UniProtKB/TrEMBL annotation:
PROSITE patterns: IG_LIKE
Organism: Accipiter nisus (Eurasian sparrowhawk)
Keyword Flavoprotein: no
Alphabetical keyword list: Disulfide bond, Glycoprotein, Immunoglobulin domain, Membrane, Signal, Transmembrane, Transmembrane helix
GO cellular component: plasma membrane
This protein's name: Myelin protein zero like 3
């Protein structure tokens, strides 16, 4: 719905239904801005993340245009102002986001985006982008949920590299043949046929006591975090009881 801020909040805080919402969507569309923002953004611990916000106004951009970003923690509580823009950016100088908010937008292009430096998990919460370009002051209120997590670090960090390779590295012909159970695989010294794994599985279940793990990409890992090797080689090494 179209909304306008309550008196004295300068676009931050509580919002109530606007007059245009009561008059009908046609009137509202003629008077309001349209704001778009990503509903959910995932960030990684310590790595800069951008919160995208774009807008369209029916009026020319002037120096009266303002941009406000507000934040509510995931645990709940009051909304707090973390950024204000009017001709120049005014990032917050207090609170948890002090010295961590930067302006990456361009109002001439309808961009009101900001960036957060060194995000931490306690930053998780809801962010709201609000734009006013008088006389256009009525607009929708899109919300962005920020989720900060650690990057995957399983198997000494090798797993993250392998997962990235899954989408771009083709399996070796020998490994693919083994997964399909091609006859003659054992005679070529590649071990017995192995079904395609849908998740990392211990190789020892198929090939004896070795504790390597294979992924659908055709790469195998060792419990010590050694470099990944093609599955075909892992099967050979397993048959020789030699860690891959």
């Amino acid at each position: 719905p179209c909304t306008q801020p309550t008196a004295g909040t300068r676009g931050v805080g509580t919002f109530v239904p606007s007059r245009c919402a009561l008059l009908g969507s046609g009137v509202c569309k003629a008077l309001s801005l349209e704001i778009k923002a990503s509903p959910k953004v995932q960030a990684f611990l310590g790595e800069q993340v951008s919160l995208q916000c774009s807008f369209k106004s029916s009026s020319p951009i002037t120096e009266s245009l303002t941009v406000d970003w507000t934040y509510r923690p995931l645990t709940g509580g009051q909304m707090e102002s973390i950024f204000h823009y009017q001709s120049v950016p005014y990032p917050t100088t207090v609170g948890k986001f002090k010295d961590r908010i930067s302006w990456v937008g361009n109002v001439a292009k309808g961009d009101a985006s900001i960036a957060i430096q060194s995000p931490v998990m306690s930053d998780n919460g809801t962010f709201i982008c609000s734009v006013k370009n008088p006389p256009d002051v009525y607009h929708n209120i899109p919300q962005t949920m920020l989720i900060v997590t650690e990057r995957g670090n399983w198997l000494s960090g090798v797993g993250d590299r392998v997962v990235r390779e899954r989408g771009r590295r083709a399996r070796s012909p020998h490994a693919a043949g083994l997964e399909r159970g091609v006859p003659g695989g054992a005679e070529r010294g590649l071990g017995s046929p192995m079904p395609r794994c849908l998740r990392p599985v211990p190789l020892e279940k198929e090939q004896g006591p070795m504790a390597s793990s294979c992924l659908p990409s055709g790469l195998c890992l060792t419990p010590r975090g050694a470099p990944a090797v093609p599955r075909a080689r892992a099967l050979v090494y397993s048959s020789l009881r030699d860690p891959c």
